[in-house]
Amino acid sequence: MTTIAILGCGYIGQRLARHYLDRGETLLAVVRSPASAAALNAAGIPALALDLAQREQTLAALSLAGARVFHLVPPPESGTDDPHTRNLVAAFAATGTPARVVYIGTTGVYGDCGGAWVDEDRPVQPQADRALRRWDAEQTLRRWAADTGAALVTLRVAGIYGPGRLPLERLRAGLPLVRPEEAPWSNRIHADDLVTACLAAMDRGSPGAVYNACDDHPSTMTDYFFQVADAAGLPRPPVIPLAEADGQISPGMLSYLRESRRLSNRKLVEGLGVRLRYPSLAEGLPACF
Ligand SMILES: NC(=O)c1ccc[n+]([C@@H]2O[C@H](COP(=O)([O-])OP(=O)(O)OC[C@H]3O[C@@H](n4cnc5c(N)ncnc54)[C@H](OP(=O)(O)O)[C@@H]3O)[C@@H](O)[C@H]2O)c1
After folding, report:
1. What residue ranges do the domains of the chain occupy?
2. Ligand 1 pocket mutation pick from 6, 11, 16, 69 by most atoms within 8 angstroms of CB
3. Residue to substitute in 15, 31, 45, 129 for testing ligand 1 pocket (most ligand atoms within 8 angstroms of CB)
């Protein structure tokens, strides 16, 4: 079997790594910092420290010809393009084409959809810079796949939650949220189900295909926090009118509140054959504690 490469081997990548190592596959994990690489190596996950922002180093260090590649490295924190993905594609061009690339993107590329149901045929409309960076990454990879004939599968991933990935600190701080009747639609996926989706995309995703990766039940950000608070035995946070959110809610959170959409996962479930273990927060949250 060819090597599995997990670029950006963090919370989700480590779950993928365990899956493949348990099956005796040859694996290489890539992380940015030497400290993360040392921690992974100590935990039995062979890892290399490499910052994809460093073009020359990336070209020199990454040789992924024939490999099965999961690309989970996020774009930089600022700007409107993704040099990490551009450098990665340059490394592919220099050192040989992987057998397949599964890219973990985000649903932010759809932008604000006014609460409409959204499937993969909906034209993208990235608005926030974070979404423009993700769209740049998708386009860079798509161009590379078209030029080389390589197999690329893209997952557009909703908000990830799971054990150790819940907004408990924010809840403990008692920070306000937008009141339920004004809160926009948003979408989530349990970490275990995202791993299942990543594995399915690698095994049988259609080359060139895009799949939304989310559970069956869109909710609102406020509802999500309420449900997490209830499951954790914490008080529900205070709520404020949307009109008062500026200044009381962080700019990062506000940028998510400017977008409302309900994602369809039909293609993931029916087209890719992914069976969700946690179709809604009601099943997923109790499994986080
Ligand atoms: N959080 C969400 O709700 C959400 C939703 C949709 C999509 N996503 C995306 O899904 C992907 C996986 O998420 P996750 O939670 O597993 O991420 P994570 O735990 O934050 O891990 C990210 C990994 O990427 C590595 N990395 C970051 N910048 C890098 C660079 N310049 N060069 C090389 N490696 C770099 C990090 O290495 P170090 O540890 O050394 O920094 C880390 O191993 C990410 O791209 C994330 O943005 C997240």
Report:
1. 4-164+188-216+263-278
2. 11
3. 31
**pLDDT confidence band for 130 (50 / 70 / 90):** very high
State the distance from the centre of ligand 1 to the C-alpha of 9, rounded, in angstroms. Answer: 7
Instruction: Render pLDDT for 162-188 as a digit per residue (tens, 0 to 9).
Output: 999 999 999 999 999 999 999 999 999
Protein residue with its CA nearest to atom 15 in ligand 1: 11
Hey, is 67 helix, strand or coil? coil
Question: 4-164+188-216+263-278: what fold?
Answer: Rossmann fold (3.40.50)
DSSP classification of residue 287: G
What's the whole-model pTM score?
A: 0.98
Per DSSP, the residues of 208-219 read T-EEEE--S--E
The response to whether residue 159 sits with its C-beta less than 6 Å from ligand 1 reads yes
Cβ of 39 closer than 6 Å to ligand 1, yes or no, is: no
pLDDT value of residue 1: 74
How far is Cα 221 from Cα 240, in angstroms, rounded to an integer? 13
Q: Which residues contact 147 (CB under 8 A, 6 or more apart)?
A: none
